[in-house]
Amino acid sequence: MRSRTRRACELALALALLAGRAAAGSCDELVKSAKAHDASGDHDVALRQYNEAVSLDPTCAEAWLGLGSLRARMGDAAVAERVYDAALTHVPSLAAAIAGRARSRWSLGHAEEAEGDLRVYAEKLAATDVRAALAAFVELASWYAAQNRAPAQLACWRRIEALAHGTDGALEARARTTAAALVIVVGPVDPVTHPPRRGLLRSVAARLGVR
User: pLDDT tens digits for the chain (211 residues)?
Assistant: First the structure.
């Protein structure tokens, strides 16, 4: 009896593995076809095939990214955001989905959420793909500039300067120059060039009753 049960379990496992491989193969084929239709402008077919791929295999990263990108390019930022959300639910390590969601949120006017996503994405790549991380930080700095948020912009360019050191000399020099200009704009608000005086800190602490 035990032998039969064991054989049944082994058979079920083998069938599951075969089904998984078949699904992966089908997903790859669907994604390849969807990309071709997308490139030729046949977006309806591409959308259908991307959706079929993620339905078949919810962990198919390329299908999620293709679907989100296509939705974003079609002007469906809200739908794209939901696609990237779903992608991260099924594939939490998919960094590109964080960047895609960030840009969708920015298009929708959700600045704070968008900036948070892009910052997470950039820091996530800082240890593995410095050039991609730098590009993300430069994009983030441009978002801060669009909102006239000089202190946040300054902090971002300082991060770029540090990260570009030894990797991209031209960008490092640009970051240093931009940061120097922003220091003038930010002025006394900048904690790096104008650290709080100890006397002032003690005065504030005394007023608050802090010992």
Answer: 455 555 544 433 333 333 444 444 688 999 999 999 999 999 999 999 999 999 999 999 999 999 999 999 999 999 999 999 999 999 999 999 999 999 999 999 999 999 999 999 999 999 999 999 999 999 999 999 999 999 999 999 999 999 999 999 999 999 999 999 999 999 765 455 555 555 444 443 444 444 3
Instruction: Tell me the one-letter amino acid at 54.
Output: V
With CA atoms as reference, report the closest residue to 33 among 20, 51, 59. Answer: 51
Element (H, E) at 36: helix 2-39
- The pTM for the full model equals 0.77
The CA distances from residue 83 to 37, 47, 160, 171, in Å, are 19, 12, 30, 33
Q: Give the domain 1-125 fold.
A: 1.25.40
**176 within 8 A of 183, measured Cβ to Cβ:** no
Domain ranges of the chain: 1-125, 132-211
